[in-house]
Amino acid sequence: MAETKPTATAGVKATSVQAKKSSNAISWLAPIICIFVGYLIWRFVFGAASGFDSPDPSGGFWPKHQKPKSAMNGIYEGGIIIPFLIGMFLMVVTFSIERWLTIRKALGNGSIADFIRKVQYHLANRNIDAAMAECDKQRGSVANVMRAGLRRYKEMTSNSELGTDQKVLAIQKEVEEATALELPMLQKNLVFLSTITSVGTLVALLGTVMGMIRSFSALGQEGGGAGAATQLAVGISEALYNTALGIGTSAFALIMYNIFTTKIDSITYGIDESGFTLTQSFASLYK
Questions:
Q1: I want to staple 182 with a disulfide (CB 3.0 to 4.6 A). Which of 31, 132, 141, 258 is the partner?
Q2: pLDDT averaged over the chain?
Protein backbone atom coordinates (compact mmCIF):
# COMPACT_ATOMS: atom_id res chain seq x y z
CA MET A 1 0.00 0.00 0.00
CA ALA A 2 1.40 3.42 -0.96
CA GLU A 3 2.65 5.58 1.86
CA THR A 4 0.53 8.65 2.52
CA LYS A 5 2.49 11.86 3.00
CA PRO A 6 1.27 14.42 5.52
CA THR A 7 -0.22 17.52 3.98
CA ALA A 8 -0.03 21.12 5.09
CA THR A 9 -3.50 20.90 6.59
CA ALA A 10 -3.05 17.69 8.54
CA GLY A 11 -3.78 18.25 12.22
CA VAL A 12 -4.96 21.78 11.50
CA LYS A 13 -8.44 23.02 12.35
CA ALA A 14 -10.68 24.50 9.72
CA THR A 15 -10.16 28.16 9.04
CA SER A 16 -11.35 30.57 11.72
CA VAL A 17 -12.10 33.24 9.13
CA GLN A 18 -15.81 33.93 8.85
CA ALA A 19 -17.47 35.28 5.72
CA LYS A 20 -18.79 38.81 6.10
CA LYS A 21 -22.44 39.53 5.54
CA SER A 22 -23.12 42.52 3.35
CA SER A 23 -26.14 43.98 1.65
CA ASN A 24 -26.25 44.79 -2.05
CA ALA A 25 -29.33 46.99 -1.69
CA ILE A 26 -27.43 50.20 -2.35
CA SER A 27 -26.02 48.73 -5.58
CA TRP A 28 -29.42 48.54 -7.27
CA LEU A 29 -31.48 51.06 -5.28
CA ALA A 30 -29.08 54.00 -5.58
CA PRO A 31 -29.03 54.21 -9.42
CA ILE A 32 -32.85 54.11 -9.60
CA ILE A 33 -33.30 56.70 -6.87
CA CYS A 34 -30.57 58.97 -8.28
CA ILE A 35 -32.08 59.01 -11.77
CA PHE A 36 -35.56 59.68 -10.34
CA VAL A 37 -34.19 62.55 -8.23
CA GLY A 38 -32.31 63.77 -11.30
CA TYR A 39 -35.60 64.00 -13.17
CA LEU A 40 -37.24 65.87 -10.30
CA ILE A 41 -34.38 68.41 -10.23
CA TRP A 42 -34.53 68.84 -14.01
CA ARG A 43 -38.32 69.11 -14.13
CA PHE A 44 -39.15 71.16 -11.03
CA VAL A 45 -35.94 73.11 -10.29
CA PHE A 46 -34.33 73.83 -13.64
CA GLY A 47 -37.71 73.57 -15.39
CA ALA A 48 -39.78 75.63 -12.97
CA ALA A 49 -42.35 77.65 -14.93
CA SER A 50 -41.36 80.81 -13.07
CA GLY A 51 -37.89 80.61 -14.65
CA PHE A 52 -39.17 81.15 -18.22
CA ASP A 53 -40.66 84.10 -20.02
CA SER A 54 -42.82 81.73 -22.11
CA PRO A 55 -43.75 78.76 -19.91
CA ASP A 56 -45.79 75.87 -21.22
CA PRO A 57 -49.16 76.05 -19.43
CA SER A 58 -49.96 72.41 -20.17
CA GLY A 59 -47.16 71.17 -17.89
CA GLY A 60 -46.82 67.40 -18.03
CA PHE A 61 -43.81 65.12 -18.13
CA TRP A 62 -41.73 67.39 -20.42
CA PRO A 63 -43.17 70.91 -20.73
CA LYS A 64 -41.98 72.94 -23.72
CA HIS A 65 -40.90 76.05 -21.82
CA GLN A 66 -39.16 78.75 -23.86
CA LYS A 67 -36.97 81.80 -23.22
CA PRO A 68 -35.21 80.86 -19.96
CA LYS A 69 -34.51 83.73 -17.58
CA SER A 70 -31.18 82.35 -16.33
CA ALA A 71 -28.44 79.88 -17.26
CA MET A 72 -29.80 77.44 -14.69
CA ASN A 73 -33.15 77.41 -16.46
CA GLY A 74 -31.31 77.09 -19.76
CA ILE A 75 -30.02 73.71 -18.58
CA TYR A 76 -33.63 72.49 -18.68
CA GLU A 77 -33.76 73.05 -22.43
CA GLY A 78 -30.84 70.66 -22.86
CA GLY A 79 -33.46 67.93 -23.22
CA ILE A 80 -34.47 64.65 -21.65
CA ILE A 81 -30.85 63.42 -21.42
CA ILE A 82 -30.15 66.01 -18.71
CA PRO A 83 -32.00 64.03 -15.96
CA PHE A 84 -29.80 61.01 -16.67
CA LEU A 85 -26.66 63.16 -16.42
CA ILE A 86 -27.85 64.68 -13.15
CA GLY A 87 -28.66 61.16 -11.92
CA MET A 88 -25.13 60.00 -12.83
CA PHE A 89 -23.64 62.91 -10.91
CA LEU A 90 -25.75 62.00 -7.89
CA MET A 91 -24.59 58.38 -8.25
CA VAL A 92 -20.97 59.51 -8.16
CA VAL A 93 -21.68 61.50 -4.99
CA THR A 94 -23.59 58.61 -3.39
CA PHE A 95 -21.02 55.90 -4.13
CA SER A 96 -18.15 58.23 -3.26
CA ILE A 97 -19.61 58.74 0.22
CA GLU A 98 -20.33 55.02 0.59
CA ARG A 99 -16.79 54.05 -0.52
CA TRP A 100 -15.19 56.73 1.65
CA LEU A 101 -16.95 55.42 4.76
CA THR A 102 -16.04 51.81 3.93
CA ILE A 103 -12.40 52.50 3.09
CA ARG A 104 -12.00 54.81 6.08
CA LYS A 105 -13.13 51.96 8.31
CA ALA A 106 -10.84 49.53 6.45
CA LEU A 107 -7.81 51.77 7.04
CA GLY A 108 -8.21 51.30 10.77
CA ASN A 109 -6.82 53.51 13.52
CA GLY A 110 -3.44 55.07 12.89
CA SER A 111 -0.66 54.25 10.46
CA ILE A 112 -0.62 50.79 8.88
CA ALA A 113 3.18 50.85 8.68
CA ASP A 114 3.48 51.63 12.41
CA PHE A 115 1.01 48.88 13.22
CA ILE A 116 3.00 46.28 11.26
CA ARG A 117 6.25 47.38 12.97
CA LYS A 118 4.65 46.93 16.39
CA VAL A 119 3.46 43.43 15.47
CA GLN A 120 6.92 42.58 14.17
CA TYR A 121 8.44 43.75 17.45
CA HIS A 122 6.09 41.61 19.55
CA LEU A 123 6.61 38.56 17.35
CA ALA A 124 10.38 38.97 17.58
CA ASN A 125 9.93 38.77 21.36
CA ARG A 126 7.62 35.74 21.00
CA ASN A 127 4.74 37.71 22.51
CA ILE A 128 1.86 36.64 20.30
CA ASP A 129 -0.85 37.86 22.68
CA ALA A 130 0.59 41.38 22.61
CA ALA A 131 0.62 41.25 18.81
CA MET A 132 -3.05 40.24 18.79
CA ALA A 133 -3.80 43.09 21.20
CA GLU A 134 -2.28 45.49 18.65
CA CYS A 135 -4.75 44.12 16.09
CA ASP A 136 -7.63 44.90 18.43
CA LYS A 137 -6.37 48.48 18.77
CA GLN A 138 -5.70 49.01 15.07
CA ARG A 139 -8.84 47.45 13.58
CA GLY A 140 -9.41 47.68 9.83
CA SER A 141 -8.73 45.22 7.01
CA VAL A 142 -4.99 44.83 7.64
CA ALA A 143 -5.60 44.15 11.33
CA ASN A 144 -8.35 41.63 10.50
CA VAL A 145 -6.03 39.68 8.21
CA MET A 146 -3.18 39.92 10.72
CA ARG A 147 -5.42 38.71 13.55
CA ALA A 148 -6.58 35.70 11.54
CA GLY A 149 -2.96 34.83 10.72
CA LEU A 150 -1.88 35.29 14.34
CA ARG A 151 -4.55 32.85 15.54
CA ARG A 152 -3.16 30.19 13.24
CA TYR A 153 0.38 31.31 14.13
CA LYS A 154 -0.36 30.68 17.81
CA GLU A 155 -1.85 27.26 17.05
CA MET A 156 1.22 26.27 15.06
CA THR A 157 3.60 27.09 17.92
CA SER A 158 2.13 24.22 19.92
CA ASN A 159 1.52 21.84 17.01
CA SER A 160 3.86 18.86 17.05
CA GLU A 161 2.37 16.95 14.10
CA LEU A 162 3.56 19.19 11.28
CA GLY A 163 6.97 20.25 10.09
CA THR A 164 8.05 23.87 9.94
CA ASP A 165 7.36 24.20 6.22
CA GLN A 166 3.86 22.79 6.66
CA LYS A 167 3.16 25.14 9.55
CA VAL A 168 4.27 28.10 7.47
CA LEU A 169 1.98 26.96 4.66
CA ALA A 170 -0.93 26.67 7.10
CA ILE A 171 -0.34 30.25 8.29
CA GLN A 172 -0.05 31.45 4.72
CA LYS A 173 -3.29 29.73 3.77
CA GLU A 174 -5.11 31.37 6.68
CA VAL A 175 -3.84 34.79 5.60
CA GLU A 176 -4.92 34.16 2.00
CA GLU A 177 -8.42 33.14 3.07
CA ALA A 178 -8.77 36.24 5.26
CA THR A 179 -7.50 38.40 2.41
CA ALA A 180 -10.02 36.85 0.00
CA LEU A 181 -12.81 38.04 2.29
CA GLU A 182 -11.46 41.55 2.84
CA LEU A 183 -10.55 42.68 -0.68
CA PRO A 184 -14.00 42.25 -2.32
CA MET A 185 -15.50 44.54 0.33
CA LEU A 186 -12.95 47.24 -0.55
CA GLN A 187 -13.55 47.05 -4.30
CA LYS A 188 -17.32 46.76 -4.12
CA ASN A 189 -19.28 49.44 -6.06
CA LEU A 190 -16.14 50.96 -7.60
CA VAL A 191 -17.46 49.61 -10.89
CA PHE A 192 -20.10 52.36 -10.86
CA LEU A 193 -17.44 55.06 -10.68
CA SER A 194 -15.31 53.47 -13.41
CA THR A 195 -18.35 53.00 -15.65
CA ILE A 196 -19.61 56.56 -15.22
CA THR A 197 -16.11 57.83 -16.03
CA SER A 198 -16.51 56.62 -19.62
CA VAL A 199 -20.27 56.37 -20.07
CA GLY A 200 -20.98 59.87 -18.73
CA THR A 201 -19.21 61.53 -21.64
CA LEU A 202 -20.94 59.28 -24.17
CA VAL A 203 -24.39 59.99 -22.75
CA ALA A 204 -23.58 63.70 -22.81
CA LEU A 205 -22.51 63.40 -26.44
CA LEU A 206 -25.82 61.70 -27.22
CA GLY A 207 -27.69 64.61 -25.65
CA THR A 208 -25.57 67.10 -27.58
CA VAL A 209 -26.19 65.35 -30.89
CA MET A 210 -29.93 65.16 -30.21
CA GLY A 211 -29.95 68.87 -29.42
CA MET A 212 -28.04 69.70 -32.60
CA ILE A 213 -30.49 67.65 -34.64
CA ARG A 214 -33.41 69.56 -33.16
CA SER A 215 -31.67 72.89 -33.80
CA PHE A 216 -30.82 72.23 -37.44
CA SER A 217 -34.27 70.76 -38.04
CA ALA A 218 -35.86 73.93 -36.70
CA LEU A 219 -33.45 76.01 -38.77
CA GLY A 220 -34.50 74.16 -41.91
CA GLN A 221 -38.15 74.76 -41.20
CA GLU A 222 -37.67 78.46 -40.41
CA GLY A 223 -35.44 79.20 -43.39
CA GLY A 224 -32.67 81.78 -43.37
CA GLY A 225 -32.47 85.21 -41.74
CA ALA A 226 -31.27 86.71 -38.49
CA GLY A 227 -34.03 85.03 -36.50
CA ALA A 228 -33.02 81.60 -37.73
CA ALA A 229 -29.37 82.28 -36.90
CA THR A 230 -30.32 83.36 -33.40
CA GLN A 231 -32.41 80.23 -32.93
CA LEU A 232 -29.52 78.07 -34.10
CA ALA A 233 -27.13 79.76 -31.67
CA VAL A 234 -29.56 79.23 -28.80
CA GLY A 235 -30.07 75.59 -29.78
CA ILE A 236 -26.34 74.93 -29.88
CA SER A 237 -25.82 76.49 -26.45
CA GLU A 238 -28.62 74.31 -25.07
CA ALA A 239 -27.07 71.20 -26.61
CA LEU A 240 -23.67 72.02 -25.11
CA TYR A 241 -25.17 71.97 -21.62
CA ASN A 242 -25.22 68.19 -22.07
CA THR A 243 -21.53 68.17 -22.90
CA ALA A 244 -20.64 70.35 -19.93
CA LEU A 245 -22.61 68.20 -17.46
CA GLY A 246 -21.25 64.96 -18.90
CA ILE A 247 -17.61 66.04 -18.86
CA GLY A 248 -17.94 67.45 -15.35
CA THR A 249 -19.56 64.25 -14.07
CA SER A 250 -16.97 62.01 -15.76
CA ALA A 251 -14.08 64.10 -14.43
CA PHE A 252 -15.47 63.96 -10.87
CA ALA A 253 -15.99 60.19 -11.14
CA LEU A 254 -12.43 59.68 -12.43
CA ILE A 255 -10.92 61.72 -9.61
CA MET A 256 -12.84 59.83 -6.93
CA TYR A 257 -12.07 56.46 -8.54
CA ASN A 258 -8.34 57.22 -8.54
CA ILE A 259 -8.44 58.39 -4.93
CA PHE A 260 -10.18 55.21 -3.77
CA THR A 261 -7.98 52.84 -5.79
CA THR A 262 -4.91 54.52 -4.31
CA LYS A 263 -6.27 53.97 -0.80
CA ILE A 264 -7.12 50.35 -1.62
CA ASP A 265 -3.62 49.78 -3.00
CA SER A 266 -2.11 50.97 0.29
CA ILE A 267 -4.36 48.57 2.22
CA THR A 268 -3.51 45.72 -0.14
CA TYR A 269 0.20 46.41 0.31
CA GLY A 270 -0.29 46.35 4.09
CA ILE A 271 -2.08 43.00 3.85
CA ASP A 272 0.71 41.53 1.72
CA GLU A 273 3.30 42.78 4.18
CA SER A 274 1.31 41.28 7.05
CA GLY A 275 1.37 37.83 5.46
CA PHE A 276 5.09 38.12 4.76
CA THR A 277 5.73 39.22 8.36
CA LEU A 278 3.90 36.23 9.83
CA THR A 279 5.47 33.57 7.63
CA GLN A 280 9.01 34.94 7.89
CA SER A 281 8.74 35.40 11.64
CA PHE A 282 7.50 31.85 12.21
CA ALA A 283 10.08 30.35 9.87
CA SER A 284 12.93 32.09 11.68
CA LEU A 285 11.75 31.69 15.30
CA TYR A 286 10.15 28.23 15.31
CA LYS A 287 12.45 26.03 13.25
A1: 141
A2: 88
